[in-house]
Design a protein that fits this description.
By secondary structure, the chain is α+β, with helices and mostly antiparallel strands. It contains 14 helices and 14 strands. A hairpin with a 3-residue loop joins β5 and β6. It is extended.
Length: 478
């Protein structure tokens, strides 16, 4: 009988092991299936395929190029046949003398675009030549642009441009864009309409002709005029020459030392506006600091009042906890919009928005940390005859200090990023500068500069807060 019972027990235990093993295998597979179903649902619910299909990848690539490059713009205004060569098309950046790769005899302007590409401009035509010798001549005839003898028109029935030879009767012998590319009339990737012809051979070249102007652009890597503005006497100086000027006894400006002069030429650069950028960055940093420290300073005492082991009154604890839920339940952006309507634009609205939201979050975190302290340490301090304030100071604060410091510093780092977003709504700071740069649709190098400044501050705050956290928490635990 004992042998039979033992055999039965073994079979039961084996069945239980197999059942447990199957359950342990099924749950991960079920989780993967659910995750796949959710991703499939999200793909269709958010129309990811449609978004990707509509994405303008070429425009994104051009924006990325503009973030790290500057361009020389050669422009011929057809109204007065005036030629201008500028950097980024900005006033005060006119080039005189012209760069070596641009030559003009007053009637024709030749531009070497590099890599064997060339462009020739005159009053009514743009001739673009590729390294293999193929030429594309775009001319202004009447009110239309003609490219290699072909005109363009809008086919309204098909909502696209089509083309016909200029020597043929109106809109006869019509061909499509692909046909012109195959015939070598148009370069592949160009844009040809009745009022313009435009082509980007690659990310470093651009040619364009319209009824109003003929324009050629060439891009170079770097940020031009980053150190000194185009009108600065230091603009063409090398780093060694600038260093020599700093230590020279011959003053450029009698009212300033050479070191002050060099610094102010950089600081007041009209193109990059370093002074305004750093002022805006400081404003963003102060906005985050004020909001975070107000939230921590208010959240800590409220956390004591909301903790069950320090406040026996249930009703007051519930009121405070619901207050925390209310404050943190409304996002900082919503608070910012409310305060902008109430107090107007300015950094104060951003600080208040951060303070309100983080008071709720930090107050909740602090109250939970206080409720989880070790009461034995408090009782040990009480046994010495310490008063209530001393019990808090030596029995409670050392236990919650790591949470207080780490959470406050973490939210400070996060709020620097939040202050940038809030500033874009009108609170000021680096966020407002970023929006203004984005609205121009051309100053992408300034946008990247602002992003770099923000990243530098975030990284610096991360390193500084890590050091401060180790310093304070390490000392408090020894």
């Amino acid at each position: 009988m004992s042998t039979i019972a033992h055999s039965t027990d073994m079979s039961i235990s084996r069945a239980e092991v197999l059942k447990t093993s199957r359950r342990a295998t099924i749950w991960p597979i079920a989780g993967l299936i659910l995750a796949f179903v959710y991703l499939a649902y999200a793909w269709f619910a958010f129309d990811v395929g449609g978004v990707l299909a509509k994405a303008d990848w070429e425009r994104g690539a051009l924006m990325s190029r503009d973030s790290f490059h500057y361009k020389y713009q050669v422009e011929l205004a057809r109204r007065n046949d005036e030629l201008s060569v500028t950097v980024e098309g900005g006033r005060g950046t006119e080039q005189d003398p012209l760069p070596a790769w641009i030559t003009t005899d007053g009637k024709q302007t030749r531009v070497d675009l590099g890599d064997g590409y060339r462009a020739v401009m005159n009053a009514n035509a743009l001739t673009y030549t590729e390294p293999d010798g193929r030429q594309f001549v775009a001319e202004i005839k009447g009110k239309e642009v003609v490219v290699n003898g072909y005109r363009a028109f809008l086919d309204e029935t098909e909502s696209r441009y089509r083309y016909f030879p200029e020597t043929a009767p109106e809109r006869t012998n019509v061909v499509d864009y692909a046909d012109l590319v195959a015939l070598g009339v148009l370069p592949d990737g160009s844009s040809f309409a009745p009022s313009k012809f435009e082509f980007h051979p690659d990310y470093y070249k651009d040619v364009r002709i319209t009824r109003a102007q003929i324009r050629v652009q060439r891009y170079f890597f770097g940020w031009e005029y980053f150190w000194f503005g185009p009108q600065s006497p230091l603009v063409d100086k090398s780093a060694a020459e600038v260093w020599g000027i700093v230590w020279s006894g011959d003053r450029i400006d009698p009212a300033l030392s050479n070191a002050e002069f060099v610094f102010l030429q950089f600081w007041r650069n009209p193109d990059w506006q370093h002074n305004e950028m750093f002022t805006a960055l400081l404003e963003t940093l102060l906005m985050a600091l004020l909001g975070t420290f107000v939230a921590a300073g208010v959240g800590l005492p409220l956390g004591f009042l909301a903790a069950a082991n320090f406040n026996p009154m249930f009703a007051s604890r519930m009121v405070l906890r619901r207050l925390f839920d209310f404050l943190r339940g409304i996002d900082q952006i919503i608070w910012s919009l409310i305060f902008i309507r109430a107090f107007g634009l300015g950094p104060l609205t951003g600080s208040l928005a951060i303070a309100f939201t983080d008071t709720g979050t930090l107050g909740k975190l602090f109250s939970e940390a206080i409720e989880n302290i070790d009461n034995k340490q408090v009782e040990g301090v009480r046994s010495t005859g310490a008063a209530a304030v001393q019990r808090y100071r030596f029995g409670v604060i050392p236990q919650i200090l790591p949470v207080f410091v780490s959470q406050t510093l973490y939210y400070l780092e996060s709020n620097i990023r939040s202050a940038t977003v809030i500033g874009a709504l009108g609170a000021g700071g680096i966020g407002l500068k970023l929006v203004q740069a984005l609205q121009t649709h051309k100053d992408w190098e300034n946008v990247m500069y602002l992003i770099f400044l923000t990243l530098i501050v975030v990284v610096a705050m991360d390193i500084g807060s890590g050091w401060l956290r180790r310093k304070l928490i390490g000392e408090s635990t020894h």
